[in-house]
Write a structure and sequence with these properties.
single chain, alpha+beta, Uridine Diphospho-n-acetylenolpyruvylglucosamine Reductase, domain 3, 5 domains, eight-stranded antiparallel sheet, five-stranded antiparallel sheet, globular
C-alpha cells in the first residue's frame, strides 16, 4: 500500500474525519477510471463528504489554495474524466444519498444529489408515486450525475414525459468558493420554502446548472415533480423488414394526439426489431393503447416477433459489455439524413481499418424522444484480448462524436472528451456568455477544469 502525500490532507481530514479522506494508492485506484474506455486520471486525494456543510468547507479550502476539484457521482460517465492539473481532489458525492421529503400534497420529492436513481425511484414508488428517471443505468447513476452530465438532465425510461431535467423545480448548489445557492426557492422570496413554478422567483437560474458537467457548481439537493403511479403495463416486440418501414411506423405513432406508448426501442436490422411499452391506469385503457400501436405496426408491414430476443438489450448488457458508447439526440426532421451519414462513416472506417479483425464491432439502437427528437446509442464494442482493440474503438467513437456535432446533433455526455467536442462548435456569443458565467461562479476554475475547453 503506497501512501500518497497531499498538501491539503491534514485540513481535509480535520473537516471530514480520517476515514473519509482516501490517500493511499489502493483506495484511490477505483476513482481513477469511470465506466468509459477513455484513459484514467491521476487524482491526488479522494474525499467523501457527508453533508452540504462539509462540501462547502472542502470547496472553500480548495478555492483558497487554487486546488482543482473533480466532482464524481456514480462514476458512469462514458467519455472519461479530463486529466486535472496538479494534485486534484476527487469529491465523491455518494454519501449525500438521502431522500429528504416526499410531499404528497404538492407532489414533489426532495433528495440529496448523491442518491442512486434506483433508490430514489423505489422510495417514491413506495408512496404510490413515480418520478421521471433514467432507464439504464438507473442502478448506478446518481441524481446529481444525471442532471449534470446527461443532455437535458437525463434520458428517461418514459420517452413521452421529457427528461428528468424537465421535471426539476429547484436545486441547491455549492459554488466553487463554498457559498450555497438555492435556486427557485428561498431565493428572491425567503418566506417560501419551495417554489411551485420554475422561474417563479425570477430568472430560471436552475436551468443554468442542467447539463453543465458539474463545472458551474456541485449539486447537493434537487426537488422534482412526482406523479401518481400507473398500475398497468405491457411490452411487445415486432419485426420490420427495412428502415423505411421503421421510420414510417415511428412517424405515424408520433402524430397520435394521446401517445399510445411510453417507450419505443429499435434495434438495427434487417429485420429491424421494434419493442414498445404501454402503461395505463386501467386495463381497458391499456388494451386500447396496445391495439392502437398494433394497428399502426400492421399498416407498416410489421409482424409480431415470436423469438426470445429483444430490441433493447438488458441492463446487464449495457453495464457490463466492453464498449465505447456514442449517445446523441437530433431533431426528427434531421434524423434520417444524419443517421445515414453516420452509418456510412462507421462502415467505411470499419472496412478501411479492418476493425472487425481487431475485435471492434458496432451496435445501434434508436429511441424516439417525446415527439420532436430521436435519441440514438451507438455501442462501439471492443475485445480486451485483442491488442489495440480498445484504442481503435475509442478513436472510432471520438470521430463519430465529432461528425454528430458537425451534423447538428446533441451529444448525451456533457463530460470529458464529449464536452470539448461540443464546445468547439459553440458560436462566439454563446461561448462568451458561458465563460462569463464560469468566471462569475468559479473565477479560479477549480471545478472540473478542462470541461468545455476551459483549461
Amino acid at each position: 500500500m503506497i501512501s500518497i502525500t497531499h498538501p491539503l490532507a491534514p485540513q481535509l481530514a480535520a473537516i471530514l474525519g480520517e476515514s473519509n479522506v482516501l490517500r493511499d494508492d489502493a483506495a484511490i485506484t477505483p476513482f481513477r477510471q469511470d465506466k468509459s474506455p477513455y484513459p484514467p486520471i491521476d487524482p491526488g486525494i479522494v474525499v467523501r463528504p457527508g453533508s452540504i456543510e462539509e462540501i462547502s468547507a472542502v470547496l472553500q479550502l480548495a478555492n483558497n489554495s487554487r486546488t482543482p476539484v473533480i466532482v464524481r457521482g456514480g462514476g458512469f460517465s462514458m467519455t472519461g474524466f479530463l486529466q486535472p492539473p496538479g494534485q486534484a481532489i476527487v469529491l465523491d458525492t455518494r454519501r449525500l444519498n438521502r431522500v429528504l421529503d416526499i410531499d404528497e400534497e404538492n407532489m414533489t420529492v426532495t433528495a440529496e444529489a448523491g442518491v442512486i436513481m434506483s433508490d430514489l425511484d423505489a422510495q417514491v414508488a413506495a408512496r404510490g408515486f413515480e418520478v421521471q428517471t433514467v432507464g439504464v443505468p438507473i442502478q448506478y447513476t446518481t441524481l446529481g450525475g444525471v442532471l449534470s452530465g446527461v443532455v437535458g438532465g437525463g434520458i428517461p425510461r418514459d420517452s413521452t414525459g421529457g427528461t428528468t431535467g424537465r421535471q426539476l423545480i429547484a436545486l441547491k448548489v455549492v459554488l466553487a468558493d463554498g457559498s450555497i445557492l438555492q435556486t427557485n426557492a428561498g431565493g428572491s422570496n425567503v418566506n417560501r420554502l419551495a417554489s411551485a413554478m420554475p422561474g417563479g422567483d425570477g430568472p430560471f437560474l436552475t436551468g443554468v446548472f442542467i447539463g453543465d458537467g458539474g463545472t458551474l457548481g456541485v449539486k447537493v439537493e434537487a426537488t422534482l415533480q412526482v406523479t401518481p403511479a400507473i398500475g398497468h403495463s405491457t411490452s411487445q416486440q415486432w419485426l420490420l423488414d427495412d428502415f423505411d418501414s421503421v421510420w414510417q411506423a415511428l412517424g405515424r405513432l408520433a402524430t397520435i394526439r394521446e401517445a399510445p406508448y411510453t417507450g419505443i426501442g429499435v434495434g438495427e436490422g434487417p429485420p429491424w426489431p421494434l419493442s414498445f411499452t404501454a402503461r395505463a391506469s386501467t386495463p381497458d385503457l391499456l388494451e386500447l393503447q396496445v391495439r392502437t400501436v398494433e394497428r399502426v405496426l400492421h399498416a407498416c408491414g410489421a409482424r409480431p416477433d415470436t423469438s426470445e430476443s429483444t430490441a433493447v438489450p438488458s441492463r446487464e448488457w449495457f453495464v457490463n459489455v466492453d464498449r465505447a458508447i456514442v449517445a446523441f439526440m437530433i431533431g426528427r426532421a434531421q434524423f434520417v439524413e444524419a443517421f445515414q451519414r453516420i452509418r456510412t462513416m462507421l462502415d467505411e472506417r470499419t472496412r478501411e481499418h479492418h476493425l472487425s479483425d481487431r475485435g471492434v464491432g458496432v451496435k445501434v439502437y434508436i429511441y424516439p424522444h417525446t415527439r420532436h427528437a430521436i435519441y440514438t446509442t451507438i455501442s462501439v464494442l471492443f475485445d480486451r484480448t485483442v491488442p489495440d482493440s480498445r484504442t481503435k474503438a475509442v478513436e472510432l467513437a471520438t470521430e463519430t462524436y465529432e461528425l454528430i456535432v458537425a451534423l447538428g446533433g446533441y451529444l448525451e455526455p456533457h463530460q470529458g472528451v464529449a464536452s470539448r467536442i461540443i464546445a468547439r462548435s459553440w458560436a462566439p456569443t454563446y461561448r462568451r456568455l458561458f465563460l462569463g458565467l464560469k468566471s462569475a461562479v468559479d473565477p479560479n476554475n477549480i471545478l472540473n477544469p478542462g470541461l468545455w475547453g476551459v483549461d
